[in-house]
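Quick check before the chapter quiz. The format below is the same one you will see on the exam, so make sure you can read both the input and the output lines.
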Amino acid sequence: MNKIGLVTDEGTDFTLELIKQHQIEVVNFKMDWPDLDKLPGENTFQKMRELEKRGIKSFGKTSQPSPKAFLDAYKKQLEKFEKVLCITITSKLSGTYNSAIQAKNILGGNNVEVVDSLNATCGEALLALKAIELIERDKEIEEIVKELEKNVPGIHLYALISDPKWLEASGRISHNVANAMRRIQKMGIRPMLGVKKGLVKPIGIKGRAKDLSVALFDQLKRKTEKERKERKKIRVVITHGDNLNNAQRLKETIEKDFKEIEISFINLIDNVLGILVGPDALILAWTPLEGSGSYSCRTSILCTELRPMNTSLRSCRLTTCGIGCAIVDLSTVALASESQIPAGSLVTAAKTPSYP
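Here is the expected output.
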C-alpha cells in the first residue's frame, strides 16, 4: 500500500490528466444557479455569456462541500493509501476548510491531515503540486504539512477581469465602483486582483492593460526579476474564464522569454471564483522552486561549493524533480567551459530523465 493519498477540492483547477496520474480525489463545490442549467454551453463561462446575450438578470451562488463529501473522499483514499493529505481553497473565501476538518474529526484517528492553502485557483494548484512533489520524495506526512505551510507565503497570484459586472452582481462591489472600473478600462487601465493573507482583493492598478495576457506577462516579469537574477526556477499555473487563446498566448510569451520559468498547466477557473470574475478573466500564479526540483522533470547537478573543473563530481549533490524521475548517470553530465563551477550553480545533465 502506498503511503500518502491526496484529496483536494475543485479549487485547484487540476486537469483530468493530473488527477488520474496522481490518483487524486477531488471534492466538488455546490452551485445553485437554476437559470444557468437551462442554457447551452460546454462550461459555466459559456453559459454566463448566453445569459448575458438573452438579457437574463441572474446570479448564482456557490457553497462549500459537505463534511460527508470529504469523509467519502478520505475513506476512498484510505482504501489505497496509509494516510491522506487534504488541501483546500482559502478559508477566507469559503467554508471548505471547515468541512474538511469536520470530516477529519468524524473519521477519527491520525491518518488525515488538512492544509488551508490560503489561496485559490492556480495559487491553490501550486501548493498541491508541491505536495505531490514531497509525497513522491517519500516524505512523512507531518514533514509535508510543515513544508506546505512554509510555502504558502511564497505563492503569488494575479488576476485581471474583462468586465466587473459579475463582481457587482455578487454584491462584492457597488454599482458606482463597477462604473468607475469600466471607465478606466476604456483607457487601458485595470484593477489587478490578488490574494493577500487568504483574502481575494485588489492589489493595485495596471496600466496598458487592454490586452490581459500582455498585462499579466508584464506583471510576472517585474515581480520575478529578483528570482530570475538569482537563476531560480519558477513554477507557473494559468487559469482562465473560457479564454484559452489569451491563456495560450501568455504561456507562449513566458516560455519564449524566460527559460527558467515552467508552465505546469492551463485550465478553466473553478466555479467558486469563476462566477465572481466572469468570462474572459485571466489568472496567473507563480512560486519559486527550491534547488533544482521541478515539475517538468529537468534533472541537474547542484554544486555545493566552489570546485575546479577537473575535480571529482562526488563533491556535488545530484537532485531530481521529486515526481519520480530516474536519476541520471554522472558520466553523462556535461560541464560548462569555465575553469571553475561557482557554488550553488546548476549544471544540467546531458541525459534526459525517464519516467518509471
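If your answer matched, good. The first strand starts at residue 2 and ends at 9.
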